[in-house]
Amino acid sequence: MNELIEFISNNLQIIYIVILSIFVGVEIIKSIPAVLHTPLMSGANALSGVVIVGAILVMLHSNPTDYVALVLGFIAVVLGVLNVVGGFAVTNRMLDMFKKKK
């Protein structure tokens, strides 16, 4: 627990930047028209793939006793995989709307 508190206190500015970027991202996504969501989902899937690979590399190079890095890396991998799978599901569903019905 002390490691987590020390990590947060050492990286407080970075945490503020991440929180601010989350709020800015939500506001930007809300203002995008529905027609552009399919191309943006494809881009988000590519970015999430990069996040997954980066998180795996960070976990590979971290110290085995550094539980904070391992837990954060694991959470990044899980959330990245969920985003990729959900993005492909939404993209596939939207593309099915444009197919001719038999």
TrEMBL record:
Record GO cellular component, one term: plasma membrane
Keyword terms: Cell inner membrane, Cell membrane, Membrane, NAD, NADP, Translocase, Transmembrane, Transmembrane helix
Reactions listed under catalytic activity: NAD(+) + NADPH + H(+)(in) = NADH + NADP(+) + H(+)(out)
Record GO terms (molecular function): NADP binding; proton-translocating NAD(P)+ transhydrogenase activity
Major localisation: membrane
Enzyme class label: translocase
GO biological process entries: NADPH regeneration
Membrane topology of this protein: Multi-pass membrane protein
Subcellular location as annotated: Cell inner membrane
NAD(P) transhydrogenase alpha subunit C-terminal domain span: 15-100
Superkingdom to which the source organism belongs: Bacteria
Residues passing through the membrane, by range: 12-29, 41-61, 67-91
EC number: 7.1.1.1
Record's function text: The transhydrogenation between NADH and NADP is coupled to respiration and ATP hydrolysis and functions as a proton pump across the membrane.
Stated name of the protein: proton-translocating NAD(P)(+) transhydrogenase
